[in-house]
Prior knowledge:
2 copies of one chain form a homodimer.
Chain A: H1 2-18, E1 24-25, H2 31-38, H3 44-53, E2 54-57, E3 61-65, E4 71-74, H4 80-86, H5 93-96, E5 98-99, E6 107-108, E7 114-122, H6 124-131, H7 136-154, E8 160-167, E9 172-181, E10 184-189, H8 192-195, H9 199-202, E11 214-220, E12 223-224, E13 232-233, E14 243-248, H10 259-288, H11 292-319, H12 322-340, H13 346-365, H14 367-374, H15 382-396, H16 413-420, H17 428-446, H18 451-457, H19 462-472, H20 478-494, H21 498-540, E15 553-558, E16 562-564, E17 567-569, E18 572-574, H22 575-581, H23 592-597, E19 606-611, E20 623-625, E21 630-638, E22 656-660, H24 661-671, H25 675-680
Amino acid sequence: xxxxxxxxxxxxxxxxxxxxxxxxxxxxxxxxxxxxxxxxxxxxxxxxxxxxxxxxxxxxxxxxxxxxxxxxxxxxxxxxxxxxxxxxxxxxxxxxxxxxxxxxxxxxxxxxxxxxxxxxxxxxxxxxxxxxxxxxxxxxxxxxxxxxxxxxxxxxxxxxxxxxxxxxxxxxxxxxxxxxxxxxxxxxxxxxxxxxxxxxxxxxxxxxxxxxxxxxxxxxxxxxxxxxxxxxxxxxxxxxxxxxxxxxxxxxxxxxxxxxxxxxxxxxxxxxxxxxxxxxxxxxxxxxxxxxxxxxxxxxxxxxxxxxxxxxxxxxxxxxxxxxxxxxxxxxxxxxxxxxxxxxxxxxxxxxxxxxxxxxxxxxxxxxxxxxxxxxxxxxxxxxxxxxxxxxxxxxxxxxxxxxxxxxxxxxxxxxxxxxxxxxxxxxxxxxxxxxxxxxxxxxxxxxxxxxxxxxxxxxxxxxxxxxxxxxxxxxxxxxxxxxxxxxxxxxxxxxxxxxxxxxxxxxxxxxxxxxxxxxxxxxxxxxxxxxxxxxxxxxxxxxxxxxxxxxxxxxxxxxxxxxxxxxxxxxxxxxxxxxxxxxxxxxxxxxxxxxxxxxxxxxxxxxxxxxxxxxxxxxxxxxxxxxxxxxxxxxxxxxxxxxxxxxxxxxxxxxxxxxxxxxxxxxxxxxxxxxxxxxxxxxx
Amino acid sequence: xxxxxxxxxxxxxxxxxxxxxxxxxxxxxxxxxxxxxxxxxxxxxxxxxxxxxxxxxxxxxxxxxxxxxxxxxxxxxxxxxxxxxxxxxxxxxxxxxxxxxxxxxxxxxxxxxxxxxxxxxxxxxxxxxxxxxxxxxxxxxxxxxxxxxxxxxxxxxxxxxxxxxxxxxxxxxxxxxxxxxxxxxxxxxxxxxxxxxxxxxxxxxxxxxxxxxxxxxxxxxxxxxxxxxxxxxxxxxxxxxxxxxxxxxxxxxxxxxxxxxxxxxxxxxxxxxxxxxxxxxxxxxxxxxxxxxxxxxxxxxxxxxxxxxxxxxxxxxxxxxxxxxxxxxxxxxxxxxxxxxxxxxxxxxxxxxxxxxxxxxxxxxxxxxxxxxxxxxxxxxxxxxxxxxxxxxxxxxxxxxxxxxxxxxxxxxxxxxxxxxxxxxxxxxxxxxxxxxxxxxxxxxxxxxxxxxxxxxxxxxxxxxxxxxxxxxxxxxxxxxxxxxxxxxxxxxxxxxxxxxxxxxxxxxxxxxxxxxxxxxxxxxxxxxxxxxxxxxxxxxxxxxxxxxxxxxxxxxxxxxxxxxxxxxxxxxxxxxxxxxxxxxxxxxxxxxxxxxxxxxxxxxxxxxxxxxxxxxxxxxxxxxxxxxxxxxxxxxxxxxxxxxxxxxxxxxxxxxxxxxxxxxxxxxxxxxxxxxxxxxxxxx
Lengths: 685, 685
């Protein structure tokens, strides 16, 4: 019945879907549009409830409260790092899954942080005033100082996280105030084999058969959080054609970039990132062949690399589409034409296009310095991250808040120390592998005669230096990190730890490049984008949504498949399909638990589904809710066409991919015997 | 003194160099231009002598006769495959070098083939007549049949190699008749560490300190070839500013491509190749960490991958240069404008631009099928190459010559069997590694549900299938290959060798895609390019040189450095520089022989030099000769700017990089005690 229902729904959808584009902020949701298109009234109370029920995982995912005892539902791939960190050679939670039969068995994740958006305040005027008439370094400094001040004023406790968020590329500045939770414990996760059934070949594809779900619990003062707002759980999932909403944190989109910026992405950023990640992937896959333990400890990084790779390839595919790129060029031409008739904001905006193009040219010419000297692409080991945080933290914390590097301003410190003092395990062999690899790339990018390369490598070969630093450092010891952090500049300066010494050695160069970057590139693009945004507001109003910025957004659409050439892709799969697709070989091997439970399952249970909602990376773990704010699905992916969504939403092809809550209930009950979790999920009233 | 000489020379050069562009055919060398610019008369006898003294290595390099006893000088990296094939775990000629102290110790290379161009004949009229009025498959078939016929008529003995060569993208068809030599023996090669000092970091860079030289000897009927034409050897090398010529076989350039073709290279071909090779490189470097034997057997492939990678990156860099690409667009626009005023050839040429653009769009949409189904990118193992040759060879040789696949036409068979029956070693572990990798990429490119992927993989995982095929095949046995080749269709069809069975399984799909490719893409582009070339000839004459096609060419220029930003790069390095650059760590470690000989050397001996000659990949091993046809250098590289030379020659920056013959003489005599070779080199009269 489902297939037919969809076929009928599709025809009707085509026009409606066109209007469904948009990653809306919770305080500017287009209620009238939804009412007009669907006859559904979205109230402010509904929006508040959904916002407070939805959370962000600070490490880069979305999630939602699904019980009054702090139970949070997200993707398996959003807690994979936690599972990896809690695993050992003997006890592999990635391979075997995890289930805490009792509350006492729930285990704290070393790094997870949950953020709940409790308040939004407009601070545009304050920000504009602070930067009025400034440019270059002065513009950047003033912006940083003012946002630091606003955040510091807001953040009256480490339990809060305050961020000044730039929306519409600086058209609006909002202060986002989050409730921060750092005690997050793992409750349930299925086996990797079913969470990511089909693996990289099926990633960003649909039809799919993945149970990419996990549950964690937020604790407050050692006890489960009493959550006032949470989503009720539908055991039957959504219907084809049904209006649904996705609340989550899309990481970033580039729909409003200038053509100069898009060209940089198309010609430089994306192809070079893809090549670099491809090389790392090749090395990692071979590293895993060293043995099962090497495979286990590098699994998370490999997943991340492959996931990014596929996403970047999809984005590139959109930009090298001749017609699509030409449409972006035309769009900009048309807007610039309008600007030429706008004596107030036009001249500044037109000048901004030229300034941005120049900045992009500069970015191109110094891109390796930006990645390898300013960033730390050349030093890919957790130890270097720790060492740099200690070295910089010590120096920065001596300064007044407003002039510090942004990531060491007061409002950021709780997140910094949460990561810094994490007991997550670190494996020397893998660290040496990563550092050797990245030092080799550093030398390749800049050339062996670059002064920075000579300084970093000295007379040593990359593998030599990597082994010396990793084997010599004592930073595995969390207590030592605490001592150095608390000891400040004196303690860090006196340390003879080789990784600390190395971080000290390379830091001045890194800071110098960063200064140049902020002065000559970042501030130019930011200021230019603001000028363009301002002119756009004046000409077109603010009825549109801003580019995504990894802040809470809500999007709406319907449960629907799509037309792939001549083939129609239906919006639902069933559990049965997983058994049909299984070949017994990784990544198409079902776990034992599934093979054993097969007879007990209702194989017609809807498994995964697709919807027209407008999402992007960062939305992983987002709840799909119906008009009554009941969770009916769990976003875990988009189809291949969703990747071009970075640059524009194509309603005909772009689809969200989600796990059906019906499948989650079926699996928890009949496969995993996880009645404690299933029973806790508040049933739909 | 040298530095000063160059500084003076440079100013004078700038204008002259602009005229030095061009990879000229030997029968259309611009003698007047050279006479006008340099006051040097190049005679036909001189050109014939240099052409006959220069040779092509069929595997992809250039070289030259340097004695009357068949001694041939080329690069170390041109015989690296031979050295690898002759090495064993115990006797590593790559690491240790090779020197045959007596004629008897010279060892035959398993695959090397030397080609000497003895005659050029214009066959344009015959080719045009054969294809007149045809298009698509018919055009392609007629072209193939006619060139096959011409080649067969020409090739009266297996010692000849006849190729119909398309020049100016089909503007001219010439028959190139080569004398073919397949008994080629290794005489001398230095250690890899000095042949490729600086390794990948220094590749395509200058200043350089590489002794990238080797000597082989051509044998005829078991005896050293009595070579009538050979180059005399200068022990002092060239002077800065001196007029020099490079005779060699540039592999391919794209200077006359349409914008649609260039856009395909910029947006699709280059970035995707770079990403794929990067991944392979990452995997290979890690594969080498398995052990010294794995490192040894995979060294050649890794070098090839890294070399291609750097070359592709350089080419991409040229195409993503906004101004450069814009100049290509403008150039084409200007030419199309001219065409609109040309009633004779204009309409066909203008239509060709549209047809080529459509063909490029089609190429984009089927590119993975082209690479993985038609080509054999998905089956990267020597065994598959052998199996496919046997399967196809058996089928094709039953057909009349004119309708065979081109590579199995009569004229090609001596080269085919030379490779097929080569005793070069094959290492199972490495073959499994390569085949696993490429099968994984095949599945990734086409997706696990593609019918071809299902057919090729069946229910097996890539690693499983790879191991089964490689461990099961008996094709290591050269006698078995000969039996199957001679047994033809019946023997091959009856074989139960798993690799043969696999090649039989996938061949129909591969042939079907190839048919589509030839009909809808290749013939459209070829015919379109011919139409454009014809119009160009009519409008602009044939005073220009054709794009490179791995056929013998001659280019001229001067020994000169260049201006790199504010820094002036002098044209010569000295042997001393190698000792200064050496860090003792690979790839900057000098071999023991050099460290021991240091005291005996004249450290002021010029080592490597740069010149303004117009070369590209394939020119490796080319002799640099002076106006008296004396060899003064050995081309082994270009600078980083030479890589953009694929699309256009920039006389300010593009430089050839060569080993100075003075350094070759110094090293042969004082480091290697290779007096037998040194004495044989005919001194300059």
